[in-house]
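Appendix B. One record, verbatim.
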Amino acid sequence: MRKIIAVLLLGMLAIASGCIGEKAGLTKEKVLTAIQNIETAHYNESFSMNMNVYDPNTNKTLNVMMSGNARGVFNKSAGIEVGNMSVTTRTMGMNISMNWPYFANGSNVYFKIDGKWYLVPSNNDLYDKAKGSLNVGYIEKLLQEKNVTFKKLGEEYAFRVNVTFWEFVNATNQSAYLNEMWGGPLSDNITVNTNTGWVEVHFRSDGTPTFIETYMNLTITFDISPPKNL
């Protein structure tokens, strides 16, 4: 059996974070009501990834670093979203940079690449990154499925909750994308262990979210053995 082991550090950051302070009186119900009442919002999303891919058969390790930023605005009722995404990938001594405007109308997401607009399939990772409004749904799902404790953080409120990789995938509806990227049902050829995983969300006093940060340290094992003869 041949295996490739990837250690992945993933972080997504909207604003600078701080340390969580004392407990506060903000409730799930107040936050969920505020989220449901959001119509238009601006967002600034940054993400970074550091992955070491180790092949035990050759004893070689490949490092891949990726960072990016997406800025945009959405109107939830109209289903419209516009913004711009920049991504830089560093590996094997090379830097690859991309800068793409995007536009979402309902369930369709378009990216402008080299002067032309292209439709992005919904099972593509770019689809989720271009729709910052999905972060609102992510917070809502966390509140519905996890026990959280709101605490005071300066003039705002916050909670931090532990999550596993699979909880994150289910909350962000990315299983279809991962199935396609990894070439089949997730359980068939891949094992994911969550070493560390958490989500921190900040809110105004009226329950409106202002910041979300996700951090994950994962060990992913790919089985790349050729299929056995029957």
